[in-house]
Task: inverse folding
């Protein structure tokens, strides 16, 4: 196993890579995409072999955890085989995925068998009509069947991700917590981030802080703050009434988590994004395609990029978009 480490300019150890495997998606969630999205032409997208090569270089340089995301990772052809190849990289401790769950009924078991260790499934509403409105195309029953298929396949510590929008789903917070408890899942509530230009709602009006979400949960349950961490930006709480369920909060506005940042993102175009909230990036696809068979060139580019990782993001709660790329391009 490699003893290499990636350390950025602020002495943070970067050992977590979020890899986008596609910018495409079968949903069009209102906070994530415009209704009529233009997706990337195939030649601009990393091939499966290129994705494996880049994952291999990151693991060789000390990455211990990789999360596959997108877009919707399960709409990428060959995703099960990609998981198998990445999960087998010596030195990688955990391969995870964030998915909208729409294809899990079919793919949960093959993914588990391929070595995928954990899944996070996005779920913003338990009302079929509202679920359709928020995702524009999604089918709630299909996603719930997918979550159940993941449980049956053997996945442990499945986590739900819920973006809370005031006036659209904030009245469902208690029901979503109940759903998580009943199925033995964890759940994380996410503050909406200003990524990409959306037209359907005003981000300033829909903003719901993690503190407000906790107050809602507090109307039904007793929240106990916990010191545990999943080595991500979530802060966790437990419930006195259901101690097995962890309630996470990702609060980019109200709680800045940059000081302990341990991650970078790779877009499916091969751009290494050093921070979710900044444009600093390095084009690894260009290096990979210009120097085939020369892994040391990629390693050097990754190390050089890390030196430019910014200290922190600076999201503001208003409608001025600071980052023009959409979340599906960023690899959420
Ligand atoms: N398609 C997969 C899914 O929905 O889980 C993976 C990609 S999606 C971009 C990853 C996560 O980002 C999802 O949980 C989604 O809810 C969240 N997300 C997307 N746009 C967001 C935004 N503007 N602010 C906060 N979270 C966002
Ligand atoms: Fe697709 Fe995920 Fe974005 Fe929703 S949040 S549109 S499921 S990529």
Result:
């Amino acid at each position: 196993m490699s003893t290499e480490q990636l350390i950025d300019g602020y002495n943070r150890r970067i050992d977590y890579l979020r890899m986008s495997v596609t910018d495409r998606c079968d949903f069009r969630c209102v906070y994530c995409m415009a209704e009529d999205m233009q997706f990337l032409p195939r030649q601009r997208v990393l091939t499966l072999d290129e994705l494996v090569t880049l994952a291999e270089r990151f693991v060789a340089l000390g990455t211990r955890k990789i999360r596959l995301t997108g877009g919707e990772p399960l709409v990428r052809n060959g995703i099960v085989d990609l998981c198998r190849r990445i999960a087998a990289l010596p030195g990688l401790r955990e391969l995870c995925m964030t998915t909208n769950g729409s294809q899990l009924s079919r793919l949960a078991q093959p993914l588990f068998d391929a070595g995928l260790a954990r899944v996070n499934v996005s779920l913003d509403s338990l009302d079929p009509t509202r679920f359709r409105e928020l995702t524009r195309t999604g089918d709630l029953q299909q996603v719930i069947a997918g979550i159940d298929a993941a449980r049956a396949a053997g996945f442990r510590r499945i986590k739900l991700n819920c973006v809370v929008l005031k006036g659209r789903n904030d009245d469902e917070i208690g029901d979503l917590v109940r759903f998580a408890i009943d199925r033995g899942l964890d759940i994380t509530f996410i503050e909406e981030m200003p990524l990409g230009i959306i037209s359907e709602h005003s981000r300033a009006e829909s903003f719901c802080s993690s503190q407000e979400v906790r107050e809602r949960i507090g109307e039904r349950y007793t929240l106990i703050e916990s010191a545990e961490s999943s080595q991500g930006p979530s802060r966790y709480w437990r419930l006195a009434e259901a101690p097995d369920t962890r309630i996470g909060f990702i609060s980019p506005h109200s709680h800045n988590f940059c000081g302990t940042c341990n991650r970078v993102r790779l877009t499916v175009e091969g751009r290494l994004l050093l921070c979710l909230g900044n444009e600093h990036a390095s084009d690894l696809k260009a290096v990979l395609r210009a120097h085939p068979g020369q892994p040391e060139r990629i390693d050097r580019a990754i190390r050089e990029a890390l030196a430019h990782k910014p200290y922190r993001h600076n999201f503001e709660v208003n409608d001025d978009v600071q980052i023009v790329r959409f979340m599906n391009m960023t690899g959420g």
Observations:
- Residues 67 and 259 are 21 Å apart (CA to CA).
